[in-house]
Task: inverse folding
């Protein structure tokens, strides 16, 4: 980390409050959470209300962390911000549960209670469309 010291008038290395090992461990936890939230398996079901609540918690953690850092408690403020990142990762994971990634079957089958997600329109039946279009055809007549 570089800091500007106005009395010296130059950039100089600043000593961090955390040793290297906890920083690496924290970075690994954040990276693993992001990978799981965005690239891992989605949640079994969508929980949009919980995700919205977690995003509000994220904003509160960011604001609180920034205020604490501005007050001089760097480690506590950084931990609050990391907690906000974790909350947003969980929110992203919960929202992904509603998406249909196309991995299912092609229709047919039955059962199931639907879901809380948006209903997708059925696929277009192009053969039925072509049959209807042929029925509309007229033979040209001389006028």
Result:
């Amino acid at each position: 980390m570089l800091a500007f010291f106005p009395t010296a008038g130059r950039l100089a290395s600043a000593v961090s409050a955390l040793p290297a090992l906890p920083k690496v461990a924290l970075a690994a936890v954040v990276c693993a959470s992001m990978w799981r939230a965005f690239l891992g398996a989605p949640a079994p079901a969508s929980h949009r209300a919980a995700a919205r609540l977690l995003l509000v918690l994220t904003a509160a953690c960011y604001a609180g962390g920034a205020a604490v850092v501005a007050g001089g408690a760097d480690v506590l403020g950084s931990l609050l911000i990391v907690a906000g990142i974790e909350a947003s990762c969980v929110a992203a994971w919960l929202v992904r549960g509603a998406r249909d990634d196309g991995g299912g079957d092609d229709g047919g089958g039955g059962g199931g209670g639907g879901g809380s997600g948006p209903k997708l329109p059925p696929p277009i039946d192009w053969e039925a469309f072509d049959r209807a279009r042929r029925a509309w055809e007229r033979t040209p007549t001389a006028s």
The first helix runs from residue 20 to 38. The two ends are 86 Å apart (CA to CA). Residues 37 and 89 are 5 Å apart (CA to CA). The chain has a mean pLDDT of 78.
